[in-house]
Design brief:
alpha+beta; 5-stranded mixed sheet
């Protein structure tokens, strides 16, 4: 009975997302578009996880409601789930909350978003939440390939350009980034004078790959997957006020703000 809450949560999510367990794609929406290919790869990975979850919860339902024997999978993962913890293999595939019932909700959200983007990559133009993806760096790398292909600039000559509340050519726009350990002054970061634990929601941010010709003062600020900073994603060259060294001492960081 200790597993009933998570079993009930799974059934609830299947009702809310009736197509979650369906696999409707067998190739990228546009094989010539590196971003479409990267999204399709994430689509395959997340649906492989969902297939494993479906089999697990089918076994669990059989055990709880139909008197079936404990399967090896139920025995190996059941104890963690009884404690409302996420098995490591599942969490490594799709990061999210550490509480299992909440993690399932996050997985369902990721499936819904990734399904939509993989089927229609043009939806990226409306802006995305990087936290909805399972491999954010894959999308950033694919953007570099797409930019090189479109502009003819050699990929080695392209540098990542990150900006807050600015438009850039060939950019993707991200809506779920927050700043910790610094403040925003205009479209640049500035040293924080008091409580560096405050999290400041950023305006929509742009990621683009460009051939850098000027010497705009920037500082590399790490982007993490959450405010616990448990998973590093990428360093973001960020326009700043003041001495760039100050931000390293203050532990400034960007985080994905779910």
């Amino acid at each position: 009975d200790s597993l009933r809450p998570i079993s009930d949560r799974w059934k609830e999510l299947l009702r809310k997302y009736p197509h979650m367990t369906e696999t409707r794609m067998n190739s990228p929406a546009d094989p010539e578009n590196p971003i479409a290919s990267a999204l399709y790869s994430q689509y395959c990975i997340i649906h492989e996880l969902v297939t494993e979850l479906s089999l697990f919860f089918k076994d669990l339902d059989g055990f709880l409601n139909h008197g079936e024997a404990l399967s090896h999978q139920l025995m190996s993962k059941g104890q963690m789930l009884i404690n409302n913890e996420v098995p490591d293999k599942w969490f490594d595939t799709a990061e999210g909350p550490e509480v299992a019932t909440e993690w399932l909700v996050e997985v369902a959200r990721k499936v819904d978003v990734i399904d939509s983007l993989a089927q229609d990559p043009a939806l990226m133009d409306k802006g995305i939440e990087l936290s909805s993806l399972i491999r954010p760096t894959a999308i950033i790398d694919a953007l570099r390939q797409k930019t090189a292909k479109k502009t003819g600039i050699p990929i080695v000559d392209l540098s990542l350009v990150f900006a807050v509340a600015e438009e850039h050519e060939n950019a993707i726009y991200v809506k779920d980034i927050a700043l910790q350990g610094a403040v925003m002054q205009g479209n640049k970061i500035a040293p924080m004078q008091k409580d560096d634990s405050i999290i400041i929601k950023c305006s929509t941010c742009s990621f683009s790959w460009e051939k850098i010709s000027d010497s705009t003062k920037t500082v590399d600020i790490p982007l993490y997957s959450n405010e616990m900073r448990s998973k590093f994603i990428v360093k973001l060259p960020t326009a700043c006020h003041g001495d760039p060294k100050v931000f390293a001492f203050a532990g400034a960081a960007f985080i994905l703000n779910r």
